[in-house]
Design goal:
heterodimer, A: mainly alpha, MetI-like fold, two-stranded antiparallel sheet, 15 helices, B: mainly alpha, 13 helices
Chain lengths: ~280, ~300
Amino acid sequence: MAMVLGRRWKKWLYLYLPLGAILIGTLFPFYWMGLTAFRPDRDLYVPWNKPNFNPFWTLRPTLEHLAFLFKETLFARWLLNTLFIALLSTGISLFCGLLAGYAIARLRFPLAGPLGTWIFVTYLVPPTLLFIPLGEVVRTFHLGDTPWALILTYPTFLIPFCTWLLMGYFRTIPKELEECAQIDGASRLQAMVHIVFPLAVPGILSAGIFAFTLSWNEFLYALVFISSVSHKTVPVGVVSELVRGDTFFWGSLMAGALMGSVPVAFIYSFFVEHYVSALTGAVKG
Amino acid sequence: MNWSKATRRERKEWTFAFLLLTPALFMLVVFVFYPFLKGLWLSVIDKEIARPGVFIGLKNFIKLWNDEIFQRTAQNTILYTIAATILKLGIGMVVALLLNQIIKFKRIIRASMLLPWIVPTVLSTLAWKWMFDPTFSVINFFLFHLGMINKQVSWLGGPVIALTSVIIVNAWRGMPFFAITLLAGLQTINPALYEAAAIDGASGWQRFWNVTWPLLMPVTMVVVLFSVIMTFADFQLVYILTGGGPANSTHLFATYAYQIGIATGKISEGAAASLAMFPFLFLVVIFQLWYIRRGEEVKEKVKRK
């Protein structure tokens, strides 16, 4: 009995306690974001060292910050912009990635190896390396300050990722299935579209969710390529319109941060296993 | 393989492959390869927002080399990359080992652990900025009531403390990625190896050091190299938390390039400042390719045996 108790005690000390502490650390900023979003200003701006003040709770929750967001700023518009841009750039990237991934994984042609490597290398190019010349390119194509500036540039980091992930996925589908279809008279294209792609749906879903969250979260290109308030995405809109000089409207800033985070967190919570497999799959390459 | 010697079937396959690759290659050539060449060109001219610019050779780079803020920026970036990566790897490894032992509520704990990695970085960083607010900081409240501080700490106020704060936020955001990937690696390790080690009398630490760590090495390397690239080229955290301040003391390459190239409008100098990242990134990528290839060769050899 004593030993069982000792083991349980040990488990608490070495497993639950540290894990709990780390979880609190991981989640506290989100709690703080949510709390601030619903807390009235007079509760918000209380110096930290004021006696008898409990900052971790509020008894007078308010919707004023959320209301401000939707009434006084173009937040609803930014949400729509972000959604539109994320959906289109994800669509383009999945289309390109599916075709390219299939070609590299399945077809025998010269340069297949180097091309695979080249696409992997583009995956490793951070957006910050090229944002200034890319801005010039966007301007030469007269795309500056339009949603297309983002819809067409986000695929630069999404296509390599999708291709790489789907390549790995195609390799797990047995070649015999396609060969059977071809013996039955299907063309290579038909075999690809009707046999391989349907089997790759889980892979496509993983790549799609991951690509969607990446474009939803993108900041630098949206900051540099878009200047009109009505064309902004959520991350840029919140940062640039709710901070005036040195004044931070913390209530509405946190309300905006919360509203911008909830959609991705929501999608993610439904597809968490797909997301994790995309994450680890991409790394294992 | 060449075209004239190929059979009709092979030619057909090559054409098909070429057609399938066209959309992806088109996008990457127009929006990655071309901008890269354009960036190289911009960095050797003196273009500004209202001036087309003429060829000036390496003057932009020489100017940066002698610029004290740029030197500081280079130091910051190296320090930031090293410190944040060590933190992420260390904590991520601990979290992965802990998560690997959890039986109940596995999914929900893993899912909440990943949140910082999912949520738009800029938005969660804003929450941190609010937590660091000098007058209303909840962290100060917490530390004050624990008796660890007795006066206000200004988390983003001085050069050293501001860089430390940014490193902490980076580790907070990136750690889940390490933890979840390492966890996936841990789950592929055969439990029989641990049993064998335990029978041989290996302690917990010895089991980690002699079984887990070497077997996890390939996954660790890939995650670390990927994270080094992204941390080295980071922009958002510094842009939001300090904006490079106080007095330009916490810039990274990317934020400094933004400040010169976009905020001040000296496009060419900005392009040069961000291209300054290239040599290091190039080396890391080469190393990564070499490491992956070597891993594949080892696998082949094992298979043949």
